Amino acid sequence: MLRSRTLALAILVSLSTAANLGCMRTLEDEYRDAIPQASELSVDVPGSGETATAALVGERAFFYQVTRDTSRAVNGGLWITLVAIHTIVGYRPTEVDETHAVWGPWNDTLNPITYVFAVEKVEEGHYRYMLSGKRRADGDDAYVDLLGGETVIDDALGARRGTIGMDFDAAHALDAYEHRAQGRIAASWDIGADPRVVEAAFDTFSDRAGDGPISALYRYREASDGSGSFEFAFRADLDDEGGAAEDVVLMTRWDRAGAGRGDGVVTGGDAGGAVIYASECWDKYFDRTFWFDNAALQPNDGDAAACPFGEALWSEM
User: Fewest CB within 10 angstroms: 16, 66, 156, 188, which?
Assistant: First the structure.
């Protein structure tokens, strides 16, 4: 659904370049470093480009592919929140001292929106930031808040944590062509600890006209050895037949090789008053080795002994 990969790659390249300039660090770089990096917000599910059509053991695991596709959607949505501020802070700040830095008012020649981005140093290692915008022709009293957050950095421990939120509805109201996305996104992250943790909430988010909005909660954990888990809760019409939407909660886990297990619960919608439980396991090639559900959604198949995680783990989201 999301179409943000080109922008995301541009961000990653710019961040990599900035990292290589550490020996030239200035006061303004200190404030730039307070901005979340794409790598901190990324959800890195073991990869495969194939499409899920699994119905039998030995075919691509359905829960794996749902997790993989969802991770891409989450990454795209979170990266969108970084595009504007990383573009702006690529320029020199208009104000900078020991307590704050300000970029703007800023826009490029053909941009209908004028932005101001400000970072405040609350205390050593603790920063707050805010992106505001207005229509180019409006006065300075027309600025509205578009994005905000805070970052806490402990260089001694190599740890960073923080929060970020973006009001896409406010940006869309300024100019629907410049900012096509709508809805809201909020996220928090904690790196330096093991596992790395990213949590996100999407509120009726859509990044282009015609796409159905996403309202969902996500929680991702990544251990230093590459193993991890991803749990998410969302509402969707699973059979795409235009009926009532179901509530879905899915917990997936994988080991360092990529073999994993998903345990999901479906309620409401076409499930009626029933509670549907389903479990699926896959090998390091992401092919199904086991499936079970209590509603005959698909034939139960495979051997639970082949699962890298022997017991079901149901999300409490």
Answer: 156
Question: Beta 182-191 vs 276-282: how paired, if at all?
Answer: unpaired
- CA-nearest of 167, 154, 103, 159 to 129 is 103
Decide: 107 and 132 in contact? Cβ < 8 Å: no
36-85: pLDDT as tens digits: 888 888 888 887 544 444 445 668 898 898 888 888 888 888 887 788 78
CB 114 within 8 A of CB 132: no
Q: For residues 115 and 25, what is the distance between their CA atoms, to the nearest angstrom? A: 25
**Nearest-angstrom CA–CA distance, 77 and 100:** 28
Cβ-proximal residues to 102 (8 Å cutoff; 6+ apart), any chain = 93, 94, 95, 96, 116, 117, 118, 119
**Alpha-carbon distance values, 90 to 15, 117, 238, 250 (Å):** 10, 12, 43, 39
- Whether 183 and 214 have beta carbons less than 8 Å apart is answered as yes
Amino acid at 302: G
Q: Which residue is it, tokens 């104000």?
A: 95
How far is residue 4's CA from residue 15's CA, in Å, rounded to a whole number?
17
Pairing assessment for the beta strands 301-302 and 228-236 based on DSSP bridges? unpaired
Helices (H), 104-210: 168-174
